[in-house]
Design brief:
heterodimer; A: 313 residues; alpha+beta; Arc Repressor Mutant, subunit A; D-Maltodextrin-Binding Protein, domain 2; 2 domains; B: 293 residues; Beta-lactamase; five-stranded antiparallel beta sheet; two-stranded antiparallel sheet; 9 strands; globular
Chain lengths: 313, 293
Protein backbone atom coordinates (compact mmCIF):
# COMPACT_ATOMS: atom_id res chain seq x y z
CA UNK A 1 0.00 0.00 0.00
CA UNK A 2 1.36 3.40 -0.99
CA UNK A 3 1.99 6.01 1.70
CA UNK A 4 -0.72 8.31 0.38
CA UNK A 5 -3.14 5.37 0.27
CA UNK A 6 -2.16 4.36 3.80
CA UNK A 7 -2.90 7.88 5.05
CA UNK A 8 -6.31 7.80 3.40
CA UNK A 9 -7.08 4.38 4.91
CA UNK A 10 -5.97 5.62 8.31
CA UNK A 11 -8.52 8.44 7.99
CA UNK A 12 -11.26 5.80 7.31
CA UNK A 13 -10.04 3.88 10.32
CA UNK A 14 -10.16 7.03 12.48
CA UNK A 15 -13.71 7.86 11.35
CA UNK A 16 -15.04 4.37 12.07
CA UNK A 17 -13.20 4.21 15.40
CA UNK A 18 -14.70 7.53 16.46
CA UNK A 19 -18.22 6.73 15.30
CA UNK A 20 -18.15 2.97 16.06
CA UNK A 21 -20.78 2.75 13.32
CA UNK A 22 -20.04 2.11 9.64
CA UNK A 23 -23.11 3.97 8.41
CA UNK A 24 -22.39 7.15 10.34
CA UNK A 25 -18.72 6.98 9.53
CA UNK A 26 -19.55 6.59 5.81
CA UNK A 27 -21.83 9.66 5.91
CA UNK A 28 -19.14 11.65 7.65
CA UNK A 29 -16.72 10.66 4.88
CA UNK A 30 -19.29 11.41 2.15
CA UNK A 31 -19.22 7.88 0.84
CA UNK A 32 -21.46 4.85 0.96
CA UNK A 33 -21.05 2.07 3.45
CA UNK A 34 -19.96 -0.90 1.28
CA UNK A 35 -16.77 0.70 -0.03
CA UNK A 36 -15.90 1.91 3.50
CA UNK A 37 -16.25 -1.62 4.82
CA UNK A 38 -14.10 -2.89 1.97
CA UNK A 39 -11.36 -0.40 2.74
CA UNK A 40 -11.29 -1.18 6.44
CA UNK A 41 -10.87 -4.82 5.43
CA UNK A 42 -8.02 -3.86 3.13
CA UNK A 43 -6.34 -1.96 5.93
CA UNK A 44 -6.77 -4.94 8.29
CA UNK A 45 -5.25 -7.12 5.61
CA UNK A 46 -2.36 -4.70 5.11
CA UNK A 47 -1.64 -4.46 8.83
CA UNK A 48 -2.30 -8.14 9.48
CA UNK A 49 -4.57 -7.51 12.47
CA UNK A 50 -8.27 -7.12 13.03
CA UNK A 51 -9.19 -3.59 14.05
CA UNK A 52 -12.88 -4.03 14.82
CA UNK A 53 -15.19 -6.68 16.22
CA UNK A 54 -18.28 -6.55 14.11
CA UNK A 55 -21.14 -7.91 16.19
CA UNK A 56 -24.69 -8.03 14.86
CA UNK A 57 -25.64 -4.58 16.04
CA UNK A 58 -22.41 -3.20 17.41
CA UNK A 59 -18.95 -2.29 16.20
CA UNK A 60 -16.14 -2.32 18.76
CA UNK A 61 -12.43 -1.69 18.61
CA UNK A 62 -10.28 -4.73 19.21
CA UNK A 63 -7.35 -4.34 21.61
CA UNK A 64 -5.05 -4.12 18.57
CA UNK A 65 -7.37 -1.58 17.01
CA UNK A 66 -7.30 0.56 20.14
CA UNK A 67 -3.51 0.42 20.22
CA UNK A 68 -3.20 1.28 16.52
CA UNK A 69 -5.74 4.11 16.87
CA UNK A 70 -3.20 5.96 19.05
CA UNK A 71 -0.57 5.46 16.36
CA UNK A 72 -2.95 6.47 13.56
CA UNK A 73 -3.79 9.73 15.31
CA UNK A 74 -0.09 10.40 15.71
CA UNK A 75 0.61 9.69 12.02
CA UNK A 76 -2.33 11.81 10.80
CA UNK A 77 -1.30 14.66 13.09
CA UNK A 78 2.21 14.59 11.65
CA UNK A 79 0.82 14.48 8.12
CA UNK A 80 -1.36 17.53 8.80
CA UNK A 81 1.67 19.34 10.19
CA UNK A 82 3.66 18.37 7.10
CA UNK A 83 1.03 20.01 4.91
CA UNK A 84 0.98 23.11 7.10
CA UNK A 85 4.74 23.50 6.93
CA UNK A 86 4.68 22.96 3.17
CA UNK A 87 2.05 25.71 2.82
CA UNK A 88 4.07 28.16 4.91
CA UNK A 89 7.21 27.38 2.98
CA UNK A 90 5.31 27.99 -0.21
CA UNK A 91 4.07 31.35 1.10
CA UNK A 92 7.51 32.29 2.45
CA UNK A 93 6.45 32.28 6.09
CA UNK A 94 8.94 29.62 6.99
CA UNK A 95 12.26 28.33 5.80
CA UNK A 96 15.38 30.32 4.98
CA UNK A 97 15.71 33.93 3.84
CA UNK A 98 19.08 34.63 2.23
CA UNK A 99 19.86 38.32 2.63
CA UNK A 100 22.69 40.49 1.35
CA UNK A 101 24.11 43.21 3.55
CA UNK A 102 26.35 46.11 2.52
CA UNK A 103 29.71 46.04 4.30
CA UNK A 104 29.38 49.56 5.70
CA UNK A 105 25.85 49.49 7.09
CA UNK A 106 26.11 50.60 10.72
CA UNK A 107 26.42 47.73 13.22
CA UNK A 108 23.28 48.71 15.13
CA UNK A 109 21.22 48.55 11.92
CA UNK A 110 22.50 45.04 11.23
CA UNK A 111 21.89 44.00 14.85
CA UNK A 112 18.31 45.22 14.93
CA UNK A 113 17.62 43.69 11.54
CA UNK A 114 18.69 40.28 12.84
CA UNK A 115 16.88 40.48 16.18
CA UNK A 116 13.67 42.11 14.95
CA UNK A 117 13.49 39.70 12.05
CA UNK A 118 13.80 36.79 14.49
CA UNK A 119 10.84 38.18 16.45
CA UNK A 120 8.67 38.84 13.43
CA UNK A 121 9.44 35.66 11.51
CA UNK A 122 10.38 33.03 14.11
CA UNK A 123 10.01 30.22 11.58
CA UNK A 124 12.34 31.78 9.00
CA UNK A 125 16.05 31.40 9.40
CA UNK A 126 17.77 34.60 8.20
CA UNK A 127 21.21 34.05 6.71
CA UNK A 128 23.06 37.27 6.00
CA UNK A 129 26.08 37.67 3.76
CA UNK A 130 28.20 40.80 3.65
CA UNK A 131 28.39 41.74 -0.05
CA UNK A 132 28.95 44.89 -2.08
CA UNK A 133 26.27 46.27 -4.37
CA UNK A 134 27.90 44.68 -7.42
CA UNK A 135 28.22 41.30 -5.66
CA UNK A 136 24.61 41.42 -4.48
CA UNK A 137 23.37 42.18 -8.00
CA UNK A 138 25.16 39.06 -9.23
CA UNK A 139 23.83 36.94 -6.34
CA UNK A 140 20.26 38.19 -6.84
CA UNK A 141 20.53 37.34 -10.53
CA UNK A 142 21.85 33.86 -9.68
CA UNK A 143 18.97 33.44 -7.18
CA UNK A 144 21.48 32.78 -4.40
CA UNK A 145 20.03 35.79 -2.58
CA UNK A 146 16.34 36.37 -1.82
CA UNK A 147 16.70 39.97 -0.70
CA UNK A 148 19.46 42.53 -0.83
CA UNK A 149 20.36 45.99 0.33
CA UNK A 150 21.79 48.01 -2.55
CA UNK A 151 23.40 51.37 -2.66
CA UNK A 152 22.19 53.77 -5.36
CA UNK A 153 22.85 54.35 -8.19
CA UNK A 154 22.22 50.93 -9.70
CA UNK A 155 20.25 49.86 -12.75
CA UNK A 156 18.40 46.57 -12.43
CA UNK A 157 14.91 46.66 -13.95
CA UNK A 158 14.39 43.01 -13.04
CA UNK A 159 14.39 43.91 -9.34
CA UNK A 160 11.69 45.51 -7.26
CA UNK A 161 12.87 48.00 -4.72
CA UNK A 162 11.60 49.36 -1.43
CA UNK A 163 11.95 52.90 -0.18
CA UNK A 164 15.03 54.99 -0.90
CA UNK A 165 16.78 55.46 2.42
CA UNK A 166 19.34 58.13 3.09
CA UNK A 167 22.40 58.19 5.27
CA UNK A 168 23.97 61.65 5.25
CA UNK A 169 27.74 61.69 5.00
CA UNK A 170 30.10 63.84 6.95
CA UNK A 171 33.81 64.33 6.56
CA UNK A 172 36.32 62.58 8.77
CA UNK A 173 38.90 65.29 9.41
CA UNK A 174 42.47 64.96 10.62
CA UNK A 175 43.57 65.94 14.13
CA UNK A 176 43.66 69.69 14.69
CA UNK A 177 40.91 70.49 12.19
CA UNK A 178 38.69 73.30 13.51
CA UNK A 179 35.26 72.09 14.65
CA UNK A 180 31.99 73.21 13.10
CA UNK A 181 30.13 72.58 9.87
CA UNK A 182 32.13 72.47 6.65
CA UNK A 183 31.61 73.40 3.05
CA UNK A 184 33.12 70.98 0.54
CA UNK A 185 35.07 73.91 -0.93
CA UNK A 186 36.82 74.27 2.47
CA UNK A 187 38.50 70.92 1.74
CA UNK A 188 40.45 72.28 -1.27
CA UNK A 189 44.02 71.06 -1.06
CA UNK A 190 43.11 67.94 0.96
CA UNK A 191 43.46 64.45 -0.43
CA UNK A 192 40.33 62.28 -0.38
CA UNK A 193 40.00 58.73 0.91
CA UNK A 194 37.12 56.83 -0.66
CA UNK A 195 36.07 53.22 -1.28
CA UNK A 196 37.66 51.42 -4.28
CA UNK A 197 36.01 52.43 -7.53
CA UNK A 198 35.63 48.81 -8.66
CA UNK A 199 33.22 48.05 -5.81
CA UNK A 200 30.66 50.62 -7.08
CA UNK A 201 31.92 52.60 -10.09
CA UNK A 202 28.81 54.72 -10.63
CA UNK A 203 28.58 55.74 -6.98
CA UNK A 204 32.31 56.47 -6.85
CA UNK A 205 31.99 58.78 -9.86
CA UNK A 206 28.82 60.38 -8.51
CA UNK A 207 30.48 61.25 -5.20
CA UNK A 208 33.54 62.74 -6.89
CA UNK A 209 31.29 64.69 -9.26
CA UNK A 210 29.28 66.09 -6.32
CA UNK A 211 32.51 67.07 -4.57
CA UNK A 212 33.67 68.81 -7.76
CA UNK A 213 30.33 70.55 -8.20
CA UNK A 214 30.79 72.06 -4.74
CA UNK A 215 34.35 73.17 -5.31
CA UNK A 216 36.34 70.22 -3.98
CA UNK A 217 38.42 68.46 -6.64
CA UNK A 218 41.00 66.42 -4.71
CA UNK A 219 44.30 66.16 -6.45
CA UNK A 220 44.88 62.71 -4.96
CA UNK A 221 42.13 60.14 -4.41
CA UNK A 222 43.09 57.20 -2.18
CA UNK A 223 41.03 54.04 -2.53
CA UNK A 224 40.61 52.34 0.83
CA UNK A 225 38.68 49.07 1.10
CA UNK A 226 38.89 48.88 4.92
CA UNK A 227 38.02 51.45 7.60
CA UNK A 228 41.44 50.95 9.21
CA UNK A 229 43.35 52.08 6.12
CA UNK A 230 41.05 55.06 5.64
CA UNK A 231 41.43 56.07 9.29
CA UNK A 232 45.21 55.74 9.06
CA UNK A 233 45.41 58.09 6.07
CA UNK A 234 43.24 60.65 7.86
CA UNK A 235 45.20 60.36 11.12
CA UNK A 236 48.44 60.89 9.21
CA UNK A 237 47.17 64.32 8.14
CA UNK A 238 46.55 65.88 4.73
CA UNK A 239 43.62 63.62 3.84
CA UNK A 240 39.92 63.48 4.64
CA UNK A 241 37.48 60.58 4.33
CA UNK A 242 33.72 60.33 3.93
CA UNK A 243 31.99 58.93 7.00
CA UNK A 244 28.40 58.23 8.07
CA UNK A 245 27.25 61.15 10.17
CA UNK A 246 25.26 58.83 12.40
CA UNK A 247 28.18 56.50 13.13
CA UNK A 248 30.62 57.38 15.89
CA UNK A 249 34.05 58.68 14.86
CA UNK A 250 36.40 55.70 14.73
CA UNK A 251 39.21 57.32 16.75
CA UNK A 252 39.42 59.95 19.51
CA UNK A 253 41.82 62.12 17.50
CA UNK A 254 39.61 62.51 14.41
CA UNK A 255 36.20 64.07 14.19
CA UNK A 256 33.36 63.63 11.75
CA UNK A 257 32.04 67.03 10.71
CA UNK A 258 28.71 67.63 8.98
CA UNK A 259 28.56 69.37 5.60
CA UNK A 260 26.54 72.53 5.09
CA UNK A 261 23.43 71.65 3.08
CA UNK A 262 24.22 67.89 3.34
CA UNK A 263 25.31 67.57 -0.31
CA UNK A 264 26.61 64.03 0.17
CA UNK A 265 24.55 61.04 1.22
CA UNK A 266 24.46 57.32 0.65
CA UNK A 267 21.10 56.31 -0.76
CA UNK A 268 20.14 52.73 -0.02
CA UNK A 269 17.15 50.53 -0.86
CA UNK A 270 16.06 46.99 -0.04
CA UNK A 271 15.57 45.02 -3.26
CA UNK A 272 14.24 41.61 -4.28
CA UNK A 273 13.68 39.82 -7.57
CA UNK A 274 10.49 41.06 -9.21
CA UNK A 275 7.47 39.06 -8.09
CA UNK A 276 9.24 37.43 -5.12
CA UNK A 277 7.87 39.71 -2.43
CA UNK A 278 7.23 37.05 0.25
CA UNK A 279 6.17 37.92 3.82
CA UNK A 280 9.77 37.33 4.93
CA UNK A 281 11.12 39.71 2.27
CA UNK A 282 8.50 42.26 3.31
CA UNK A 283 9.51 41.97 6.96
CA UNK A 284 13.19 42.37 6.07
CA UNK A 285 12.48 45.47 3.99
CA UNK A 286 10.20 47.01 6.61
CA UNK A 287 12.68 46.54 9.44
CA UNK A 288 15.48 48.09 7.37
CA UNK A 289 13.24 51.00 6.35
CA UNK A 290 12.32 51.67 9.97
CA UNK A 291 15.97 51.75 11.00
CA UNK A 292 17.12 54.21 8.32
CA UNK A 293 15.78 57.61 7.30
CA UNK A 294 13.75 57.86 4.09
CA UNK A 295 15.49 60.10 1.58
CA UNK A 296 13.76 63.44 1.38
CA UNK A 297 12.21 64.43 -1.87
CA UNK A 298 14.53 67.40 -2.17
CA UNK A 299 13.37 70.35 -4.26
CA UNK A 300 15.03 69.87 -7.61
CA UNK A 301 17.64 72.45 -8.58
CA UNK A 302 17.11 74.08 -11.97
CA UNK A 303 18.53 71.74 -14.61
CA UNK A 304 20.11 72.89 -17.83
CA UNK A 305 20.20 70.10 -20.38
CA UNK A 306 22.84 70.73 -23.04
CA UNK A 307 22.49 70.07 -26.77
CA UNK A 308 24.44 66.82 -26.30
CA UNK A 309 21.34 65.33 -24.68
CA UNK A 310 19.90 65.27 -28.23
CA UNK A 311 16.35 64.78 -26.95
CA UNK A 312 15.37 68.00 -25.20
CA UNK A 313 14.40 71.23 -26.94
CA UNK B 1 51.02 76.28 -5.22
CA UNK B 2 49.38 79.30 -6.80
CA UNK B 3 46.30 78.85 -8.96
CA UNK B 4 48.18 80.17 -11.98
CA UNK B 5 50.90 77.56 -11.50
CA UNK B 6 48.30 74.82 -11.09
CA UNK B 7 46.54 75.85 -14.30
CA UNK B 8 49.84 75.97 -16.19
CA UNK B 9 50.79 72.52 -14.83
CA UNK B 10 47.41 71.20 -15.85
CA UNK B 11 47.97 72.38 -19.43
CA UNK B 12 51.51 70.97 -19.48
CA UNK B 13 50.28 67.61 -18.21
CA UNK B 14 47.88 67.38 -21.17
CA UNK B 15 50.69 68.10 -23.63
CA UNK B 16 49.67 71.65 -24.49
CA UNK B 17 50.74 75.21 -23.85
CA UNK B 18 47.78 77.17 -22.61
CA UNK B 19 46.77 80.79 -22.20
CA UNK B 20 43.78 81.39 -19.99
CA UNK B 21 41.75 84.15 -18.49
CA UNK B 22 38.86 83.54 -16.12
CA UNK B 23 36.93 86.25 -14.34
CA UNK B 24 33.78 86.92 -12.41
CA UNK B 25 31.08 88.48 -14.59
CA UNK B 26 29.74 90.41 -11.61
CA UNK B 27 33.03 91.15 -9.89
CA UNK B 28 36.65 91.80 -10.65
CA UNK B 29 38.38 88.67 -9.37
CA UNK B 30 40.33 86.85 -12.03
CA UNK B 31 42.74 84.04 -12.85
CA UNK B 32 45.25 85.01 -15.53
CA UNK B 33 47.73 82.66 -17.18
CA UNK B 34 49.37 84.41 -20.11
CA UNK B 35 46.09 86.30 -20.40
CA UNK B 36 47.51 89.17 -22.46
CA UNK B 37 49.30 87.01 -24.99
CA UNK B 38 48.04 87.51 -28.55
CA UNK B 39 46.34 84.31 -29.69
CA UNK B 40 44.84 82.93 -32.89
CA UNK B 41 41.03 83.06 -32.67
CA UNK B 42 40.26 80.44 -35.32
CA UNK B 43 36.46 79.97 -35.26
CA UNK B 44 36.16 82.04 -32.09
CA UNK B 45 35.98 84.99 -34.53
CA UNK B 46 32.33 83.97 -34.95
CA UNK B 47 31.62 85.48 -31.51
CA UNK B 48 32.36 89.15 -32.38
CA UNK B 49 30.70 88.40 -35.74
CA UNK B 50 27.54 87.33 -33.90
CA UNK B 51 27.48 90.56 -31.93
CA UNK B 52 27.95 92.58 -35.12
CA UNK B 53 25.02 90.77 -36.78
CA UNK B 54 22.68 91.45 -33.85
CA UNK B 55 23.77 95.08 -33.72
CA UNK B 56 23.14 95.45 -37.45
CA UNK B 57 19.71 93.93 -36.93
CA UNK B 58 18.98 96.52 -34.23
CA UNK B 59 19.96 99.43 -36.46
CA UNK B 60 17.95 98.02 -39.32
CA UNK B 61 20.92 97.44 -41.60
CA UNK B 62 20.13 93.75 -41.63
CA UNK B 63 16.74 92.05 -41.43
CA UNK B 64 17.22 89.13 -39.03
CA UNK B 65 14.33 87.24 -40.66
CA UNK B 66 15.47 88.11 -44.18
CA UNK B 67 16.32 85.12 -46.30
CA UNK B 68 19.78 84.39 -47.68
CA UNK B 69 20.38 81.84 -50.41
CA UNK B 70 23.67 79.94 -50.43
CA UNK B 71 24.67 77.91 -53.49
CA UNK B 72 27.04 74.98 -53.44
CA UNK B 73 30.19 75.88 -55.30
CA UNK B 74 29.89 79.53 -54.30
CA UNK B 75 29.52 79.37 -50.55
CA UNK B 76 32.42 78.51 -48.22
CA UNK B 77 33.00 74.85 -47.39
CA UNK B 78 33.48 73.16 -44.08
CA UNK B 79 32.91 69.94 -42.15
CA UNK B 80 29.59 70.95 -40.53
CA UNK B 81 26.26 72.55 -41.32
CA UNK B 82 25.64 74.20 -44.65
CA UNK B 83 29.38 73.99 -45.38
CA UNK B 84 29.00 70.21 -45.70
CA UNK B 85 25.65 70.08 -47.52
CA UNK B 86 24.90 69.00 -51.09
CA UNK B 87 22.34 71.47 -52.32
CA UNK B 88 21.21 75.05 -52.40
CA UNK B 89 20.16 76.37 -49.01
CA UNK B 90 17.96 79.32 -48.22
CA UNK B 91 17.45 80.46 -44.65
CA UNK B 92 17.08 83.53 -42.48
CA UNK B 93 19.97 85.62 -41.20
CA UNK B 94 19.33 84.64 -37.60
CA UNK B 95 19.22 80.95 -38.50
CA UNK B 96 22.58 81.34 -40.23
CA UNK B 97 23.79 82.79 -36.91
CA UNK B 98 22.36 79.75 -35.12
CA UNK B 99 24.33 77.37 -37.36
CA UNK B 100 27.50 79.47 -37.13
CA UNK B 101 27.39 79.27 -33.34
CA UNK B 102 25.93 75.80 -32.66
CA UNK B 103 28.05 73.79 -35.11
CA UNK B 104 30.61 76.41 -36.18
CA UNK B 105 29.22 76.38 -39.71
CA UNK B 106 31.79 78.12 -41.93
CA UNK B 107 29.44 78.71 -44.85
CA UNK B 108 26.89 80.37 -42.57
CA UNK B 109 29.53 82.50 -40.82
CA UNK B 110 31.12 83.71 -44.04
CA UNK B 111 27.71 84.65 -45.41
CA UNK B 112 27.14 86.73 -42.27
CA UNK B 113 30.54 88.44 -42.67
CA UNK B 114 29.47 89.31 -46.21
CA UNK B 115 26.31 90.90 -44.81
CA UNK B 116 27.84 93.07 -42.07
CA UNK B 117 31.46 93.56 -43.20
CA UNK B 118 34.75 93.44 -41.28
CA UNK B 119 34.44 97.05 -40.16
CA UNK B 120 31.27 96.35 -38.21
CA UNK B 121 32.84 93.26 -36.58
CA UNK B 122 35.92 95.17 -35.48
CA UNK B 123 33.78 98.04 -34.30
CA UNK B 124 32.27 95.66 -31.72
CA UNK B 125 35.61 95.07 -30.02
CA UNK B 126 36.91 98.61 -30.55
CA UNK B 127 33.81 100.00 -28.86
CA UNK B 128 34.68 97.90 -25.81
CA UNK B 129 38.25 99.22 -25.80
CA UNK B 130 39.73 95.92 -26.95
CA UNK B 131 42.81 96.90 -28.92
CA UNK B 132 44.41 93.56 -29.80
CA UNK B 133 41.32 91.85 -31.15
CA UNK B 134 41.02 92.06 -34.90
CA UNK B 135 39.03 90.09 -37.48
CA UNK B 136 40.64 90.23 -40.91
CA UNK B 137 39.61 86.98 -42.60
CA UNK B 138 36.57 84.86 -43.29
CA UNK B 139 36.86 81.08 -42.99
CA UNK B 140 37.34 81.02 -46.76
CA UNK B 141 40.41 83.30 -46.75
CA UNK B 142 41.82 81.41 -43.81
CA UNK B 143 41.66 78.12 -45.71
CA UNK B 144 43.01 79.76 -48.84
CA UNK B 145 46.01 81.10 -46.88
CA UNK B 146 46.82 77.62 -45.66
CA UNK B 147 46.62 76.17 -49.18
CA UNK B 148 48.87 78.96 -50.46
CA UNK B 149 51.38 78.75 -47.57
CA UNK B 150 51.66 74.97 -47.89
CA UNK B 151 52.17 75.25 -51.63
CA UNK B 152 49.41 72.82 -52.63
CA UNK B 153 46.63 73.06 -55.18
CA UNK B 154 43.55 72.89 -52.94
CA UNK B 155 42.14 72.04 -49.51
CA UNK B 156 41.91 68.33 -50.37
CA UNK B 157 45.65 68.19 -50.94
CA UNK B 158 46.27 70.22 -47.83
CA UNK B 159 44.59 67.95 -45.30
CA UNK B 160 47.15 65.10 -45.25
CA UNK B 161 49.98 67.61 -44.70
CA UNK B 162 48.49 69.24 -41.65
CA UNK B 163 50.03 66.87 -39.10
CA UNK B 164 53.53 67.64 -40.43
CA UNK B 165 55.38 70.18 -38.29
CA UNK B 166 57.41 71.40 -41.28
CA UNK B 167 54.20 72.33 -43.08
CA UNK B 168 52.62 73.82 -39.96
CA UNK B 169 55.58 76.18 -39.54
CA UNK B 170 54.79 77.77 -42.89
CA UNK B 171 51.14 78.54 -42.10
CA UNK B 172 50.35 82.21 -41.43
CA UNK B 173 46.93 81.06 -40.20
CA UNK B 174 48.64 79.80 -37.05
CA UNK B 175 50.32 83.16 -36.30
CA UNK B 176 48.21 85.79 -34.48
CA UNK B 177 49.70 88.72 -36.36
CA UNK B 178 48.54 87.40 -39.73
CA UNK B 179 45.06 86.09 -38.92
CA UNK B 180 42.00 86.74 -36.72
CA UNK B 181 43.41 87.44 -33.27
CA UNK B 182 42.68 88.47 -29.73
CA UNK B 183 43.90 87.80 -26.18
CA UNK B 184 42.25 85.67 -23.49
CA UNK B 185 41.56 88.79 -21.42
CA UNK B 186 39.91 90.62 -24.34
CA UNK B 187 37.66 87.63 -25.02
CA UNK B 188 36.45 87.48 -21.40
CA UNK B 189 35.85 91.24 -21.62
CA UNK B 190 33.60 90.67 -24.64
CA UNK B 191 31.76 87.83 -22.89
CA UNK B 192 31.38 89.88 -19.70
CA UNK B 193 29.85 92.74 -21.68
CA UNK B 194 27.52 90.29 -23.46
CA UNK B 195 26.40 88.72 -20.18
CA UNK B 196 25.91 92.17 -18.64
CA UNK B 197 23.68 93.23 -21.59
CA UNK B 198 26.25 95.85 -22.62
CA UNK B 199 26.97 94.96 -26.26
CA UNK B 200 23.43 95.37 -27.58
CA UNK B 201 19.86 95.60 -26.30
CA UNK B 202 19.01 93.19 -23.46
CA UNK B 203 16.76 91.24 -25.85
CA UNK B 204 19.54 90.84 -28.40
CA UNK B 205 22.06 89.91 -25.69
CA UNK B 206 19.66 87.25 -24.34
CA UNK B 207 19.21 85.86 -27.85
CA UNK B 208 22.98 85.71 -28.37
CA UNK B 209 23.53 84.02 -25.00
CA UNK B 210 20.96 81.42 -26.02
CA UNK B 211 22.83 80.72 -29.26
CA UNK B 212 26.11 80.28 -27.37
CA UNK B 213 24.30 77.82 -25.10
CA UNK B 214 23.24 75.78 -28.14
CA UNK B 215 26.79 74.86 -29.12
CA UNK B 216 26.87 71.08 -29.50
CA UNK B 217 30.49 70.28 -28.63
CA UNK B 218 30.80 68.70 -25.19
CA UNK B 219 34.52 67.98 -25.22
CA UNK B 220 36.18 71.24 -24.17
CA UNK B 221 34.84 73.85 -21.73
CA UNK B 222 31.64 71.93 -20.95
CA UNK B 223 33.60 68.77 -20.09
CA UNK B 224 34.97 70.50 -17.01
CA UNK B 225 31.49 71.16 -15.63
CA UNK B 226 29.61 67.84 -15.75
CA UNK B 227 26.81 69.17 -13.54
CA UNK B 228 23.17 69.24 -14.61
CA UNK B 229 22.45 72.45 -12.72
CA UNK B 230 25.35 74.39 -14.24
CA UNK B 231 24.87 76.20 -17.53
CA UNK B 232 27.75 76.34 -19.99
CA UNK B 233 27.70 78.47 -23.12
CA UNK B 234 30.64 78.95 -25.44
CA UNK B 235 32.30 79.07 -28.81
CA UNK B 236 35.17 76.85 -29.86
CA UNK B 237 37.92 77.47 -32.35
CA UNK B 238 40.20 74.86 -33.92
CA UNK B 239 43.14 74.84 -36.32
CA UNK B 240 46.03 72.39 -36.60
CA UNK B 241 47.56 72.11 -33.07
CA UNK B 242 45.29 74.93 -31.84
CA UNK B 243 42.27 74.27 -29.62
CA UNK B 244 40.33 77.18 -28.16
CA UNK B 245 37.11 77.88 -26.37
CA UNK B 246 35.66 80.98 -24.83
CA UNK B 247 32.49 80.81 -22.80
CA UNK B 248 30.53 81.47 -19.66
CA UNK B 249 29.78 79.12 -16.78
CA UNK B 250 26.72 79.89 -14.64
CA UNK B 251 25.96 78.30 -11.27
CA UNK B 252 22.47 78.19 -9.74
CA UNK B 253 23.65 80.32 -6.80
CA UNK B 254 24.09 83.21 -9.25
CA UNK B 255 27.85 82.85 -9.75
CA UNK B 256 28.77 83.70 -13.39
CA UNK B 257 32.27 83.30 -14.77
CA UNK B 258 33.73 84.14 -18.17
CA UNK B 259 36.54 81.86 -19.32
CA UNK B 260 38.78 82.11 -22.37
CA UNK B 261 41.24 79.31 -23.00
CA UNK B 262 43.58 79.05 -25.98
CA UNK B 263 45.95 76.10 -26.37
CA UNK B 264 48.66 74.85 -28.65
CA UNK B 265 49.44 71.14 -28.57
CA UNK B 266 52.85 69.55 -28.72
CA UNK B 267 51.55 66.68 -30.82
CA UNK B 268 50.17 67.44 -34.26
CA UNK B 269 47.48 64.72 -34.43
CA UNK B 270 44.01 65.93 -35.34
CA UNK B 271 42.45 63.87 -32.56
CA UNK B 272 43.79 64.60 -29.09
CA UNK B 273 40.99 64.09 -26.55
CA UNK B 274 43.21 65.06 -23.62
CA UNK B 275 44.06 68.37 -25.27
CA UNK B 276 40.34 69.08 -25.72
CA UNK B 277 39.42 68.06 -22.18
CA UNK B 278 42.14 70.11 -20.51
CA UNK B 279 40.30 73.26 -21.53
CA UNK B 280 37.47 72.14 -19.25
CA UNK B 281 39.80 70.93 -16.50
CA UNK B 282 41.79 74.16 -16.43
CA UNK B 283 38.61 76.23 -16.56
CA UNK B 284 37.19 74.42 -13.57
CA UNK B 285 40.38 74.88 -11.57
CA UNK B 286 40.07 78.60 -12.25
CA UNK B 287 36.32 78.79 -11.60
CA UNK B 288 36.61 76.76 -8.38
CA UNK B 289 39.28 79.21 -7.29
CA UNK B 290 37.04 82.17 -8.02
CA UNK B 291 34.11 80.52 -6.26
CA UNK B 292 36.13 79.65 -3.15
CA UNK B 293 36.26 83.40 -2.56
Amino acid sequence: MLFVDLVRHLRYFLAVAEELHFGRAARRLHMSQPPLSQRIQRLEHELGVRLFDRAARQVRLTDAGAALLVEAREVLGRVDHLHTVADRLRRGEAGVLRGGMLPDLPGDVVASLVSEFRDRCPDVRLTLRELTTAEQLRALADRTLDVGVLRHPFDAPWLDQGEVLSQPLGVLCPPGWPPGPLRLADLAGQELVIFPRTTAPALHDELLSTCARHGFTPRVVHEAATPGFALGLVLAGGAVALHHLDSPAPHPDVRCLPLVGAPLAWRTSPVWPRGKHTPAVAAFAEILTARLTPAELAPRPPLHPRPTTEYLP
Amino acid sequence: MTIEKRVAECFADAGVTGWLHAREIDGAREVAVGADTPVVLASVFKLPLLVAVFRAAETGEVDPAGRVTLDPGERSGGPTGIGAMFDQVSMSVRDLALLAMSVSDNAAADALVDLVGFEAINHVTESLGLTTTCVVQRSRELTESMVRDAGVADAAELAPLLTDRRVLRTLSALRPESTNRSTPREMTALLTALWRDKVASPESCAAMRRLLGLQVWPHRLASGFPFDDVRVAGKTGTLPTLRNEVGVVEYPDGGRYAVAAFTSSVRTSFTLPAADAVIGTAARLAVDHLRAG
